[in-house]
């Protein structure tokens, strides 16, 4: 037990009980708790009163006013300076007074500068993990950044106290904690010199790739998989005119699904380059992604953000199990990509229609577009205006892609971004006639679908037709792509052209017919529509 206040002034008007010790003995509270030095100076209070004066003593007389004890005017000297008790991160809440946490830094964000109505500022954040598995984000602003930015190192263990807790901003914070710590001028951050083996170096909450299909757009999650392919890094211009890098790779796991992972910025040249070298040499590493961002454009994919962390061949049970599965036969197991619109055998929500059914059932005429799959053959491709010159700048996490025009100085101008640049992109805008056993229709195929149909990029075709003017080679490519059968994922929506309403059919995805999957689909249709068929 710790004595906090050795003595204190009398509160109220206490009365002595009849037959008690001499009243003077009790006029001083806590007399028995006084230190010996104090007791010796107050002996006069314990001396018995003379007998002839005992009758005149009034036990209810209020003691004379005593000045406050010395500790009151000595400020922090008598303040309880015992160190704050270390508590688990999970026990933190805004209503606690003194607290301290001991945790390992698992991630450290970049120093960012901002400007708002209150002026310029700077901010950085780091994530903590303690021995109980609790995680929390810590944020520092302005002067506090100067104190702690160079102190914090990933992997080190720190003792942190005297910060304020505020609700976590879930749009930017993937940790499973409803609070964030904001360090202030009186906050303390002390490095623990001795390594604490009870605190793990990292903590994951892996989701199987098959569950990413149902994950919400823009949500953050952890995923682990075998890297089966890595594309080269390509430069991308952002809207602010700054250039960044983008690299796409593919992961697969034992769930039978694969997913695209898009690396941005420094991830392309660090981890991305190492992964490409490993895959090119015949190695297929395990990659763990912490805090990847889900994107639902054209299927589901995962992308990196500033707080994302990548771990190549991590030392964890999940990675070891995945490696064992891959080496024991998973290498040769086929997987279905969730990053593309799935076709027969893959999508549970697929609606298969013939081309005549699209017209006869009035698809696309409601408020929302209709999405269907059709198996059809390409019979004609228009070669006039088959592509357009597009803006390469990034708007947020997507490319602008608006049409650009060439100015007098031979530079390309985007009216939307209001910027000029030396090189533009070339994107398909194909008008294609497709036909099945019931009829034919016109569809519009944009970039990815156009590349799948023609087998080459829009830039190659543009150069052949307009710069090299090689009409012979251009025509050969067009003719070679006719009468090929595909599975088309179609978006059907009625749109206004001038004063006329027209149904527009857009090709979202094109896949070559997988005859094994198509046969299974037809057998399922037979079973569904003819349940009482004779068995052979």
UniProtKB/TrEMBL annotation:
Q: Main subcellular localization, coarse class? A: nucleus
Stored InterPro entries: Euk_RPA1_DBD_C, NA-bd_OB-fold, NA-bd_OB_tRNA, Rep_factor-A_C, REPA_OB_2, Rfa1
Q: Which SUPFAM superfamilies match?
A: Nucleic acid-binding proteins
Compositionally biased tracts (Polar residues): 27-45
The ranges of region (Disordered) come to 12-59
Q: Where is the OB domain?
A: 101-181
Q: Where in the cell is it found?
A: Nucleus
UniProt KW keywords: DNA damage, DNA recombination, DNA repair, DNA replication, DNA-binding, Metal-binding, Nucleus, Zinc, Zinc-finger
Query: Residue limits of the Replication factor A C-terminal domain?
Result: 371-522
Record domain Replication protein A OB: where? 209-313
Name the Pfam families for this protein.
Answer: Rep_fac-A_C, REPA_OB_2, tRNA_anti-codon
Q: Which GO terms describe its molecular function?
A: damaged DNA binding; single-stranded telomeric DNA binding; zinc ion binding
Q: Which GO terms describe its biological process?
A: DNA replication; double-strand break repair via homologous recombination; meiotic cell cycle; nucleotide-excision repair; telomere maintenance via telomerase
Tell me the protein family, please.
Belongs to the replication factor A protein 1 family.
What function is annotated for this protein?
Component of the replication protein A complex (RPA) required for DNA recombination, repair and replication. The activity of RPA is mediated by single-stranded DNA binding and protein interactions. Probably involved in repair of double-strand DNA breaks (DSBs) induced by genotoxic stresses.
Q: What is the protein's given name?
A: Replication protein A subunit
């Amino acid at each position: 037990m710790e004595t906090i206040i050795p003595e204190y002034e009398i509160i109220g008007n206490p009365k002595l009980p009849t037959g008690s010790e001499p009243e003077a003995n009790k006029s001083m509270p806590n007399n028995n708790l006084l230190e010996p030095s104090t007791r010796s100076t107050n002996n006069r209070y314990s001396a018995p009163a003379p007998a002839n004066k005992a009758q005149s003593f009034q036990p209810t007389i209020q003691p004379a006013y005593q000045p406050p004890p010395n500790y009151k005017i000595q400020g922090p000297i008598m303040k309880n300076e015992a160190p704050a008790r270390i508590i688990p991160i999970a026990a933190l809440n805004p209503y606690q007074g003194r607290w301290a946490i001991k945790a390992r830094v698992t991630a450290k964000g970049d120093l960012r500068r901002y400007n708002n109505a209150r002026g310029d500022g700077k901010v950085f954040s780091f994530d903590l993990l303690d021995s109980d598995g609790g995680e929390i984000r810590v944020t520092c602003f302005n002067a506090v950044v100067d104190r702690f930015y160079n102190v914090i190192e990933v992997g080190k263990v720190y003792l942190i106290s005297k910060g304020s807790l505020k609700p976590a901003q879930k749009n930017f914070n993937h940790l499973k904690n409803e609070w964030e710590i904001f360090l202030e001028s009186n906050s303390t951050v002390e490095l623990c010199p001795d390594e604490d083996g009870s605190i793990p170096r990292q903590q994951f909450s892996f989701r199987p790739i098959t569950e990413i299909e149902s994950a919400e757009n823009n949500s953050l999650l952890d995923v682990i998989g075998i890297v089966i392919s890595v594309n080269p890094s390509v430069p991308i211009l952002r809207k602010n005119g700054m250039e960044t890098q983008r690299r796409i790779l593919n992961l697969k796991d034992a769930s039978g699904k694969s997913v695209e992972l898009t690396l941005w910025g420094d991830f392309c040249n660090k981890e991305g380059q190492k992964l490409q070298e490993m895959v090119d040499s015949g190695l297929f590493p395990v990659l763990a992604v912490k805090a990847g961002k889900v994107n639902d454009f054209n299927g589901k994919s995962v992308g990196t953000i500033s707080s994302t962390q990548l771990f190549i061949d991590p030392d964890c049970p999940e990675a070891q199990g995945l490696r064992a599965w891959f080496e024991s036969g998973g290498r040769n197991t086929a997987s279905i990509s969730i990053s593309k619109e799935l076709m027969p055998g893959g999508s549970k929500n697929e609606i298969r229609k013939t081309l005549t059914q699209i017209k006869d059932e009035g698809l696309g005429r409601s408020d929302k577009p209709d999405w269907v799959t059709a198996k059809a053959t390409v019979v004609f491709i228009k070669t006039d205006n088959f592509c357009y010159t597009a803006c390469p700048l990034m708007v947020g996490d997507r490319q602008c892609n608006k049409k650009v025009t060439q100015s007098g100085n031979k530079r390309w101008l985007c009216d939307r971004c209001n910027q000029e640049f030396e090189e533009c992109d070339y994107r398909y805008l194909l008008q294609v006639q497709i036909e099945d056993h019931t009829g034919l229709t016109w569809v519009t195929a944009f970039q990815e679908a156009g590349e799948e149909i023609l087998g080459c990029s829009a830039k190659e075709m543009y150069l052949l037709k307009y710069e090299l003017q090689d009409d012979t080679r251009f025509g050969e490519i067009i003719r070679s792509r006719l009468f090929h059968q595909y599975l088309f994922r179609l978006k059907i929506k009625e749109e206004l052209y001038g004063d006329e309403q027209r149904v527009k059919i857009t090709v979202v995805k094109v896949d070559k017919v997988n005859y094994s999957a198509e046969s299974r689909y037809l057998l399922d249709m037979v079973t569904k529509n003819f349940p009482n068929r004779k068995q052979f």
